[in-house]
Structures are given as C-alpha cells and as structure tokens.
Amino acid sequence: MQVRPYQTDDAARLAIIFYRSVRVAGLKAYSQHQVEAWAVSVPPASFYEQRAGDGRILLVTINADGEPIAYGDLERSGHIDHLFCIPEAIGTGAASALYDRLESAAHEWGLGRLFVEASELARPLFARKGFETIARNDFMMRGAMIYNYQMEKFLRR
Ligand SMILES: CC(C)(COP(=O)(O)OP(=O)(O)OC[C@H]1O[C@@H](n2cnc3c(N)ncnc32)[C@H](O)[C@@H]1OP(=O)(O)O)[C@@H](O)C(=O)NCCC(=O)NCCS
User: Fold this and answer.
1) Percent of the chain at pLDDT above 90?
2) pTM of the predicted model as reported, rounded to 2 decimal places
3) Coil/strand/helix, residue 93
4) What Rg, from alpha-carbon coordinates, does the chain have?
5) How far apart are CA 113 and CA 95, in angstroms?
6) Coil, strand, or helix at residue 77?
7) What would the mean pLDDT of 68-93 be, rounded to a whole number?
8) Contacts of 137 (CB under 8 A, 6+ apart)
9) Ligand 1 nearest-atom number relative to CA 86
10) Is the dihedral of CA 83, 6, 68, 99 positive or negative?
11) What is the reported pLDDT for 157?
12) CA torsion angle 98 100 105 110 (round to 10)
C-alpha cells in the first residue's frame, strides 16, 4: 500500500471509488434513500480533473498491484472535502495512511487548522487523528434528510 499524488488517468477510477464507497459502505450507517441522494451517479472524469487543478492536494492510495483503492483531498483553506475508500479495503488503514499524508501537506503549507464534515463512517478515523467534534449537521440533500459531523483539528506550527 502506497500513497501518491493524483494522476490524470486516475479520474475514472476515483469516480468509481466514490460511488461504490457511498453506495455500498455508506449503508453501514445510512439508509438506501440517503446513499442514493449522496451519490446519485458515478461522477464524470472531468469532476476530478477540475478539482486536481484548482490548487488542492489530491492523493491516492494504491494497492500492491498499483490500483487506486482510496483517495482524499485537502483544500488550501484546511478543508478536507473528500475521503473515500473502496468497500473491500475499509479497515486496512488505506484511508488512515492517506490522511497522514494530507496532514503532512497541511504542515508544509503552514496551516493552523484542518476541518471536515465527516460522515458517520469517517468520524472514528478523524477522532483517532485528533479531531474534535464541534456539531452535528442535519441537512436536506436532494430530497433526503442526512447528517454529518463538523470536526476540526488545530495543528502546531
Ligand atoms: C471514511 C472511510 C474512508 C474510513 O475508512 P477506514 O478504513 O475505516 O479508515 P482507516 O484507514 O483509518 O482504517 C481504520 C480501521 O482499520 C484498521 N487498520 C488496519 N490496519 C491499519 C493500519 N495499518 N493503519 C491504520 N488502521 C489500520 C484500524 O484498526 C481500524 O479498524 P476499526 O475501525 O475496527 O477500529 C471509509 O469508511 C469510507 O470510505 N466510508 C464511506 C464513505 C465515507 O463515509 N467517506 C467519508 C466522507 S466525509
């Protein structure tokens, strides 16, 4: 298992990771109705190409065969927007290793604070990494009530 920067030909694979992660793994904490609203369809490759070029850091965990199994990003503001892992690799540390690399990048950028809207499934990972839960967000997403947790971590500079 290795973490590396996003490459252009990863886009289609990351889109599938997102979709399967939400639609399959998401069911451990959310209803069918909720995961269908969260991941309506497989995002187009252009979604990732655009994000990779907007100044954020976008990293990918690959398995021993070089196949992407998880990905995550960090925006310049300190916001972690995406962190997704294929269902088969959840509980193997793929997301944990990826998070650690995002935090290293945050230190390199001199950021003082990281923040995330963590799903029920991501909350334990972020808590293990030292994030505090500030609030629970209950909101409507494409016709489904859903929730996540506002979490933050202050970094020593
Ligand atoms: C959120 C998500 C990426 C977290 O993935 P994860 O695999 O649970 O997270 P980690 O990589 O930290 O793995 C943690 C588990 O792996 C175990 N593990 C095994 N080897 C490990 C290693 N080398 N390093 C760290 N953890 C390891 C840990 O003990 C832990 O097990 P536990 O949950 O039974 O305590 C994943 O649940 C997911 O994709 N969920 C669906 C989509 C989603 O909710 N995304 C978040 C949006 S904010």
Assistant:
1) 97
2) 0.96
3) coil
4) 15
5) 20
6) coil
7) 98
8) 117, 147, 148, 149, 150
9) 39
10) negative
11) 76
12) 150
Q: Any idea which residue has 């954020």 for tokens?
A: 56
CB of 95 shorter than 6 A to ligand 1: yes
Q: How far apart are CA 124 and CA 68, in angstroms?
A: 23
**H helix runs in the chain, sequence order:** 11-23, 32-38, 45-52, 94-109, 123-128
Read off the pLDDT of residues 15-70 as tens digits, 9 standing for 90 and up: 999 999 999 999 999 999 999 999 999 999 999 999 999 999 999 999 999 999 99
3-state secondary structure of 63: coil
C-alpha dihedral sign at 107, 67, 71, 122: negative
Q: What is the CA(136)–ligand 1 centre distance, in A?
A: 20
| Structural domains present in the chain | 2-154 (3.40.630.30)
Q: Which atom of ligand 1 is nearest to the CA of 98?
A: 11
85 contacts 97 by C-beta, under 8 angstroms: no
Mutate to test the pocket of ligand 1, among 61, 75, 92, 98 (most ligand atoms within 8 A of CB): 92
